[in-house]
Write a structure and sequence with these properties.
The protein has 13 helices and 10 strands. α4 crosses α5 and α12 crosses α13. By secondary structure, the chain is an alpha/beta fold. It is globular, with a radius of gyration of 20 Å.
Length: 331
């Protein structure tokens, strides 16, 4: 069996996606995002970020139907190995059903998932799942945005829904939902890691995802020109808060997110050597570098290799076959 199945089981889902989810909603930027994805796929040898075409913020008021047709055509025209998703309108928006019928009905087979914003309950998730089923996209996963205190409270139940693959945190709406009780500074790149209610929400979402083997996706950083601050935020999300994925809203944010979520090369080398020992021992406990290791530590170090793969890091030759990667020199 593959190490992923031996070691992770249901938790394999938390590492099933690229670490960056890049959003764009204007036609020219959507096309550029897809072109950049293709360029970076060739560079890294794996798809290191998803492109999510945005209807919620991208569609002009009154032009929702036309925008849904546009993103459908872009998804259908994307390269065969592209990873493309769409964010539709919330389930209570008048355009929601038409969005799903048009986009999932025509291009569901080309999409990696459908993102649904402003999800408040399991009932909202089920409504979205039913709409996908009605459109014929019965296997398409759902990603959902948690954007209110009530939704955070229900995050564990939402994450448990079998159709949900990932939960994202909607920082801006979460702060504004408190009616001024949380200061505007909490929406900044620094303040969002200081305010207790925001931190509590982030931790609840990450914990809910890990409890059910789903992917926790961290919120945007709106200061897109401050790349050092962005990378610091991504590093805190990955190393301190348990997130395995993060949103990008500008092409310049993609590489700093990849770097922040990537393990160090020495961590990859250690993980590879230990997994080799474990395979040789048929997953029984082993001594390695003066320490005793068993399946608990094997699981951790396998996850290091998963993160390396999803951030485009070159893997040691012994690990490449597990990720269907050709042997080549590390650089």
């Amino acid at each position: 069996m593959h190490p992923r199945h031996i070691l992770l089981g249901a938790q394999a889902g938390a590492f099933a996606l690229p670490v960056c989810d890049h959003y764009s909603g204007v036609e020219a930027r959507m096309k550029k995002s897809l072109a950049l994805q293709a360029e970076m796929l060739e560079e890294f040898g794996t798809c290191v970020f998803d492109v999510t075409l945005d209807c919620e913020d991208g569609a002009p008021v009154g032009g929702e139907a036309e925008h849904a047709l546009l993103v459908t055509e872009l998804a259908l025209a994307a390269a065969p190995d592209a990873r493309v998703a769409v964010r539709v309108h919330p389930v209570d928006h008048p355009a929601f059903n038409a969005d799903v019928a048009t986009i999932a009905g025509r291009a569901g087979h080309r999409l990696t998932h459908l993102m649904v914003p402003k999800v408040e309950s399991v009932a909202d998730v089920q409504r979205a799942a039913d709409a996908l089923d009605a459109a014929g996209a019965t296997a398409l996963p759902l990603h959902v945005l948690i954007e209110s205190p009530a939704a955070v409270h229900r995050a564990f139940d939402i994450a448990a829904h079998p159709r949900v693959q990932s939960l994202s945190f909607g920082l801006m709406d979460f702060v504004s939902a408190h009616g001024g009780a949380i200061p505007a500074d909490a929406m900044s790149v620094a303040g969002q890691f200081r305010h207790p209610l925001v931190l509590r929400a982030k931790l609840a979402i990450a914990s809910a995802c890990h409890a059910h083997g789903k992917v926790p996706s961290h919120c945007v950083v709106t200061e897109f020109k401050d790349l050092a601050a962005l990378q610091n935020a991504a590093h805190q999300a990955a190393r301190a808060l348990g997130y395995t994925r993060m949103w990008s809203i500008h092409p310049d944010q993609i590489r700093p997110i990849l770097a922040a979520f990537a393990p160090l090369e020495r961590e990859v080398d250690t993980a590879s050597a230990l997994i080799e020992h474990a395979v040789t021992a048929n997953w029984a406990p082993v001594q390695f570098e003066g320490r005793l290791h068993d399946r608990a530590s094997y699981r951790y170090y396998w996850q290091v290799l998963e993160r390396a793969h999803h951030t485009g890091l070159p893997l040691p030759d012994a690990m490449r076959p597990y990720f269907n990667e050709p042997l080549k020199a590390r650089h």
